[in-house]
Amino acid sequence: MHKVLRVDGRRESTGKAIAEESNQITRIYNNLYKVKSQSGNGEYTVTRNLVGWSCSCPDHIHRGVKCKHIWAVEFEFALKRRVWTRVIEPMTDAFICIFCKSDRIVKDGVRRNKHGPIQKFHCKECGHYFTINIGFEKMKHDPQSITTAMQLYFSGESLRNTAKSLRLIRVEVSHQTIFNWIQKYVSLMQKYLTKITPQVSDTWRADELYVKIKGNMKYLFALMDDETRFWIAQEVADTKHGHDARGLLRLGKEIAQKTPATLITDGLQSYHEAYLKEYWTTRKDTQTKHVRNIRIDGKVHNNKMERFNGEVRDREKVMRGLKKGDTPILIGYQIFHNYIRPHMGLDGRTPAEVCGIRVEGENKWATLIQNARCENR
User: Fold this and answer.
1) Which of 74-78, 298-302, 359-363 has the highest mean pLDDT?
2) Which residue, among 257, 263, 194, has the nearest Cα to 226 in the 3D structure?
3) What mean pLDDT comes out for the span 57-66?
4) Can you give the pTM of this predicted structure?
5) Which of 42-51, 201-210, 269-278, 313-322 shows the lowest mean pLDDT across its residues?
6) pLDDT at residue 226 above 80?
7) What span, in angstroms and rounded, lies between the C-alpha atoms of 323 and 143?
8) What's the pLDDT at 212?
9) Is residue 279 within 8 Å of residue 249, measured between CB atoms?
10) Which of helix, strand or coil describes residue 144?
11) For 140, left (φ over 0), alpha (ψ -120 to 50), or beta?
């Protein structure tokens, strides 16, 4: 193991050097870290309580000082807060002619209908006049009605109650049409968002919960980032025991473009078998640690995943079960959870924001749909 040398004898500078070197610190959960000994003999436990930080190393225990391991954890925490931000902005203008694909277009008045004015464009290349509604082309209803329906539905309303609510703003639409909107735009957004890499932490959690699909009990396996609560990946299985969870872990690795330093699960054997195939390696410096002895009231628990499971169960109760095996509802709720819904545990931010992906605009659904449409042209 490479030994981190003291630059000037100060614990602070040594801690900074530890934090900047890869695979020296392992985050077990919010207030529990493991820091490798720089002599190569084991590791020390750094914890935080109401009083402050404490470490199991002799320097902290016998001298009562802020040791290099505590400094390292604090620097590590600060480094993870400095994330690169990708901004997804609303689109209001056309970029190319819808007929000849020329960029020689100019605005030329507006066309008015019952939903309001729509910008008209004139192409100087082919001479055509046209209107464009990015992401919502050829739709009978306006973008506000469509995105309002999606917000109502994923916030907890049923399809029929969503249709009733839209009538209050004079939008007459059936519950089947609302489902068609969800199916169309969830597919569009999913293709776009899978190309964006979230900056998740090094500790992931996995858990499973039962869902009813076409009257039959199935299991939703979900993978979530511990620090940002970003829902990384999901898959539906027929059974709980004996299911090969390798696909879930592989998908998480592809989306995050890395493997975690720590994977926290319950004692289900499927997770450990998948972990050995996908994340385990003989190289200690890149080895993922699998924590699977979680307890409800212990130091290592899965409360965040249980809270997440409660969200999905509440949504399923309103739907009275899912009607199709390939339903877009679960993917749609994943997008809602990550990019639309603010979380109190994240100071009112979305998981995507904490992961360095900021969706701008008052209507985030419209912003995502517009960008997805342009990306997939």
Assistant:
1) 359-363
2) 263
3) 89
4) 0.74
5) 313-322
6) yes
7) 26
8) 80
9) yes
10) helix
11) alpha
The packing angle between helices 364-375 and 143-155, to 10°, is 110
Q: Is 51 exposed, middle or buried (0-12, 13-18, 19+ CB in 10 A)?
A: exposed
Measured CA to CA in angstroms, residue 206 lies from 3, 129, 262, 309, 367 at distances of 34, 53, 11, 11, 30
Rounded CA-CA distance 138/133 in Å is 8
Residue with tokens 């489902």: 179
Residue 35: CB atoms within 10 Å: 26
Cα–Cα distance measured from residue 134 to residue 363, given in angstroms and rounded to the nearest whole number: 14
> From CA 258, how far away is CA 246, in angstroms rounded?
15
Q: Tell me, what's the pLDDT at 210?
A: 84
User: For residues 267 and 99, what is the distance between their CA atoms, to the nearest angstrom?
Assistant: 58
From 192, 179, 184, 177, select the one nearest 338 (Cα to Cα).
Answer: 192
CA-CA distance, 91 to 243, in Å (whole number)?
Answer: 43
Determine the Cα–Cα distance for residues 117 and 283; give it in Å rounded to an integer.
62
Segments making up each domain of the chain, as ranges: 11-81, 92-133, 203-375
Helix 175-193 and helix 143-155: axis angle, to 10°? Answer: 90
How many residues does this entry show for the chain?
377
Q: Distance between CA 206 and CA 224 in Å, rounded? A: 6
Report d(CA 321, CA 236) in Å as an integer. Answer: 14
**Whole-angstrom distance, CA of residue 150 vs CA of residue 339:** 13
pLDDT (0 to 100) of residue 4: 43
CA 235 – CA 231 distance, rounded (Å): 12
* Interior angle at CA 212, CA 147 and CA 239, nearest 5: 125
The vertex-136 CA angle with 336 and 319, nearest 5°, equals: 40
Please tell us whether the domain made up of 203-375 is placed in CATH 3.30.420.10: yes
Fold classification of 92-133 is N-terminal domain of TfIIb (2.20.25)
